[in-house]
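Methods — Computational structure assignment.
A single polypeptide chain was analysed. Its primary sequence is given first, followed by the predicted tertiary structure written as structure tokens.
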Amino acid sequence: MVSQVSLPTTTRLSQSEQAAIRADLIGRCFDDRWLSGLAGSIRDKLQSFGYLRAAVSEPTLTIADASRDPQPISVAVEVKEGARYKVREVEWWNLKAVSLEQIMAVSPIQIDDVVDMSKV
């Protein structure tokens, strides 16, 4: 079970972004399939913060206490966030039933928002 997540001390991620990454991982039990997708999961989270080209290393795992069951592990991962992207323009084509203003009023994507790929 994941008990601790270490991110690089040089990260530009805010405290709340770091906390969100940790919250997604801490307390989770894992197997080899979960472990193989861990870097991708962290990359997805970074993309939701606008870091579309983030690079994430394969995590390093350390067993914190082998005598416990489940064994608590520490996960260390290196991230290179890269540039943070914002929405500059939103285009909609072939609108017939509703106006652009009506769609933009309910759209999860707005001008000047940080690009969040989960909203696209």
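Note: Residues 2-80 form a domain with the Ubiquitin-like (UB roll) fold (CATH 3.10.20.310).
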